[in-house]
Amino acid sequence: MSQKITPALWYETNAEEAIAFYAGIFDDFTLISESRYGPGTPMPEGTLLSATFELAGLQFMAINGGPHDKFNDAVSFYVNCADQAEVDRYWDALTADGGAEVQCGWLKDKFGMSWQIVPVQLSEFLEQSEPEAAQRVMQAMLQMVKIDVEGLRAARDGVSV
Predict the structure, then answer these.
(1) Using CA atoms in the order 131, 133, 137, 138, what is the torsion angle rounded to 10 degrees?
(2) pLDDT value at residue 150
(3) How far, in Å, CA of 109 to CA of 126, rounded?
(4) Which CATH number fits domain 1-69: 3.30.720.100, 3.40.190.10, 3.30.565.10, 3.40.50.1820?
(5) pLDDT value, residue 161
(6) Percent of the chain residues topping a pLDDT of 90
(7) Strand 8-11 vs strand 58-64: parallel, antiparallel, or unpaired?
(8) Which fold has domain 71-161?
(9) Residue 131 pLDDT exceeds 70
(10) How far is residue 43's CA from residue 45's CA, in Å, rounded to a whole number?
(11) What is the pLDDT, as a whole number, of residue 3?
C-alpha cells in the first residue's frame, strides 16, 4: 500500500537529473513509476513528466512542470543522522556541484531544495541535559554551519574546543 500523503517536488525541466542525484546519495532508493511527455505537449516528447520514487522509506513525486515555481525554505527535508560520519556524507553529497551551506545544519542542494542534516545527538543533548547544558548546546549549534557532534558534546560538558 502506498503512503496516503506524498510530497510532490516541482522542477522546471531537470526532475530526472534530480532523481538520479538523490538515487546516488541515499542507499535505499527505489524508482516506483514514471511517465513521459508525448507529442504536442509543453515539453519535448520523451521528457520526464513525473516520477514516483522512494528515499529512505518515504515516497516522493517529482514533476517537470516548467518555470512557474521554485523551491524555498518553507519546506525542507530533515535527515536524522546516526553520527558525524553520516552527517558528513550527506552534507558533502548534497552540497556538491552547486549546493550551498546555510546555517545550523541547513543546506540547499544544487536544485534549490532545502535540507536539514542533523545528528541524533543534537536532540539527545537538548532533551537529556540539565537546562544550562542544553542552553550551551543550543548556543553552540546556532554558531555552526554543518553540525559538529564533538562541538555539541563539548558545549554540553562545558569544555572549550
Answers:
(1) 30
(2) 97
(3) 27
(4) 3.30.720.100
(5) 66
(6) 91
(7) parallel
(8) 2,3-Dihydroxybiphenyl 1,2-Dioxygenase; domain 1 (3.10.180)
(9) yes
(10) 6
(11) 87
- What does the pLDDT average to over 56-70? 92
Name beta bridge partners: 78: 116
The residue with greater pLDDT, 67 or 81, is 81
Buried b (16+ CB within 10 A) or exposed e, 47-83: ebbbbbbbbeeeebbbbbbeeeeebeeeebbebebee
Give the model confidence (pLDDT) of 134-158 as tens digits: 999 999 999 999 999 999 999 999 9
SS3 for the chain is CCCCCCCEEEECCCHHHHHHHHHHHCCCEEEEEEEECCCCCCCCCCCEEEEEEEECCEEEEEEECCCCCCCCCCCEEEEEECCHHHHHHHHHHHHCCCCEECCCCEEECCCCCEEEEEEHHHHHHHHHCCHHHHHHHHHHHHCCCCCCHHHHHHHHHCCCC
Residues listed for the chain: 161
